[in-house]
């Protein structure tokens, strides 16, 4: 194959690359920022898409975040690619913090009793048989309730930050394009003047 590695990665190397960027965190975050800002859409569409992805990440519906983000972005006239990039807020490093905060917030809002620290009876069996009712009341309901205010708050922050960043980036790009176009037209005019001179 043309672009295959000479020495295939081991499972440990692939796991490390999944949890930790190959380069630095700064470079990876800068790359994601450029990916978002270079999307061909209006600032509102980019910001709405990212906000939809951020909100979906806070919900406990793991595995359905992209679908939920796409649906929300469609309703808000957001960009679907930006929604997918917004879902990247949820990763192995941030999920424990997100889940703990949504659970505690939901438990506070619903005044739910704190479970005794043990998993409900047959948790593994309930999950393997898709019996959500067994874990709904003690865990999923507080997480869902807590995800609403936290998700809306972080989505609003993401919308504002991305909207102004996208608007600024697109305005600067437009200015550079206009300056280049004007410079080319001046060069053409100067060239035609020099060619027409005796």
Quaternary arrangement of the chains shown? single chain
- Element-level helix/strand string: HHHHHHHH
> What is the number of helices?
8
**Unreliable residue stretches:** none
By DSSP, the count of extended strands is 0
Helix content: over 70%
Roughly how many Å apart are the termini?
Answer: 61 Å
**How many structural domains are formed by the residues?**
1
The coarse overall form would be elongated
> What is the mean pLDDT?
81
Largest sheet: none
**β-strand amount:** under 5%
Radius of gyration: 24 Å
Helix and strand content put the structural class at mainly alpha
Give an overview of the whole structure:
The protein has one domain. The model has no long low-confidence stretch (mean pLDDT 81). Helix content is 72%, strand content 0%. The longest helix has 64 residues, at 133-196. The chain has helices at residues 11-19, 25-37, 43-58, 65-75, 80-86, 95-110, 123-128, 133-196. It is mostly helical. The protein contains eight helices and no strands.
């Amino acid at each position: 194959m043309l672009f295959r590695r000479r020495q295939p990665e081991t499972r440990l190397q692939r796991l490390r690359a999944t949890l930790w960027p190959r380069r630095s965190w700064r470079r990876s975050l800068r790359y994601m920022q450029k990916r978002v800002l270079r999307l061909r859409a209006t600032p509102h569409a980019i910001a709405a898409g990212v906000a939809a992805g951020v909100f979906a990440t806070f919900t406990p519906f793991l595995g359905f975040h992209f679908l939920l983000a796409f649906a929300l972005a469609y309703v808000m006239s957001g960009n679907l690619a930006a929604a997918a990039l917004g879902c990247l807020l949820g990763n192995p490093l941030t999920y424990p913090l997100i889940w703990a905060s949504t659970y505690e917030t939901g438990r506070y809002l619903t005044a739910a009793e704190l479970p005794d620290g043990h998993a409900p009876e047959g948790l593994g069996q309930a999950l393997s048989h898709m019996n959500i009712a067994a874990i709904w009341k003690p865990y999923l309901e507080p997480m869902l309730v807590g995800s609403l205010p936290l998700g809306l708050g972080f989505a609003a922050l993401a919308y504002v930050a991305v909207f102004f960043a996208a608007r600024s980036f697109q305005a600067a790009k437009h200015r550079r394009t206009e300056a280049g176009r004007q410079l080319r037209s001046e060069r053409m005019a100067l060239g035609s003047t020099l060619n027409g001179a005796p």
